[in-house]
Structure formats: C-alpha cells, structure tokens
Write the structure tokens for this entry.
Amino acid sequence: MVKSRVASVIIQDGSGGIEVVSKLNTECNIEKINDDIRSGILGSQYGIFFRLGRVLSILRNNDVVITNLPMHHMFFSLCNILYKKKLIGVEHGPWVFVISAKSSIVLSWFYHLWLSKSKLPIICVSKDLLAVYNLIRKNNHYIPNCISFIDNVKTNSLISDKCKFVFVGRFDYQKDVTLAIESYIAYRKRFGNDCSLELFGDGSELDALKEHYKREDSIFFHGYNANARNELYKFDVCLVTSKFEGLPGIVLEALHVGCRVVCAPFISGLMELSIYPNLIITNDREIDSFVESTEQILKADYEVKQVRTKLETYYSHNKVRQKYSKIISKLNI
C-alpha cells in the first residue's frame, strides 16, 4: 500500500503551544492513517504571503496538508487551486475574534468572508470553538489536542510547607504575565504566607519584567526551559492568565500531575476545563479575583489518580488518533 504524504504546516518558532500540539497531533496519527508526516516551516503567520514558492512546494510534494493558523488556512486554500490536494485546517484558538482585534480591518473582513464561504474542513480543539464556528460556517469538527502525559506526578493534594506557584508560557501580550505576578504578590501580602513564584518562558516582555521585579526576593525567572513541564509536579499552584486561548496544554498538563490551577476566563476551552476539581476559573481578570480564587483552590481536596484517569480518557494519543482517523476517513483521504 502506497503511503500518503502529509505535511503539517507550522511557524518557525517550534516552542509555542500551537507548534508543540500540531506536531503531537500529526505524530499520533501516523499509525492509523498510514502517513509519512512532514513538517513544513513557514516563518510567521503573516510571513506566509512572502513564501509563495515554499507553499507551492509543500502542496506539490504532499497529498494532504494540515494547516494550523488562519492565514495559512486561507493562503494554502487559494494556492491549492493549482493542485487540488486535500487540506485540513486546525483551529487552536479563537482567531475569528483575535484577528479582528489585532489586524487591519480589510484583512480581518477578508478572512471572515473567506471563512464563511470556504468548504475547508476545520477541526476545532475545544467545544467552545466548535460552537462559535458552527454559527458562521459548515464542515467543522471537534477533536481536542492530545497532550504529553508526564510520569512525575504528585501522590496527593497536600500543600507544600512553602507554597510554590508557577507560570509557564511566553512572555507576551496574549499570556499577560504581569497579571500572574501581581496576583501572586497580592496573595502573599494579604495572607502573609511563606511562598514563591517561579516563571518559565521567554518572549518580548521577559527582560522588562525581570528588571521591574528584581527586588522581589520570592520571584524567580528561569527563562525558556524545554523540560519545564516535567517540573510541574513540584509546584502547588499553576497560574494561567492568558487573554485568549483555545485549549491550553499547560492547563491539562498541570492538572494531570496533580497541581492546582488558577485560570483566567479566556475565550475558549472553559467547557472542558470546568469539570476538574483541582482547577478554578476566576470571575474576571482582576487581581482580587485571582487572590480569592487562589485561597479557594488551596482548600480543595481531590484524588490525583481520579483526575489523571479522566484526563487520559479524553486527551491521550490513542483517543485523539481515533478521532482524527474517523474524520479523515469521512473526508476520503
């Protein structure tokens, strides 16, 4: 049997959540759909418009192309007029809103118009996203991201003598790291607890934040660490302060190791996340809400093993592989 050639198109920086999960999602499908996976790397999301030759090469040399960003969906679909290859788009975040907020009006309008008319099969990584996309177009499907489950886990829900907070993610506008830091400082001042905050990640705001908080002796910046997720079990509370997300892997991974999570009410993914006893979603993006939610989640009692079992039921490689295989078979790929 001849193998299909599949390209999963990502952006240049392989450390972000979209890049990580898109690689995992494609890798976990090799066995079932009998594919060779190729990763096509294309600079930034908007840089694709200047990489016509690379786009045409990816289309020419592969049978199936999976795109992971809005501009990639649109540009590959337009170029595919020449090749008639099979395309699948994966929506990792609420881009239908975000593009409107951060891009030109013309580009946003054009993308929305194209999205509503396009027959491209779109895979949404959360049920919230699926509900939104079902309002504006057809041919949408729900498959959550698979995640890399970690062997190092907590044995129970007890808090360390010195309560340890952690933040893992990019230091940029979307992640709103300042809210995480200020919420931690406010919690420490209000309750006088002996605690610490460790932050893993890099990005455009890292240097400025390190300088601004250099006098805080309980806050530690570690920069980017590829193994940071393997250290999650050492912490008591994971702070997630993103302004928008799809279905954030760091939340699922923190829950899986038994860490408590205090999570901002971002646009998507809340339907799936709200069922876990070691997670609390704040009422709003105010510091007081984070402080009160932190106090509440620290009192939570739960069985780590039960949380792990439930997560593995929905987000394991095997489960995601089965869902992709089912949809791909319907698309006659």
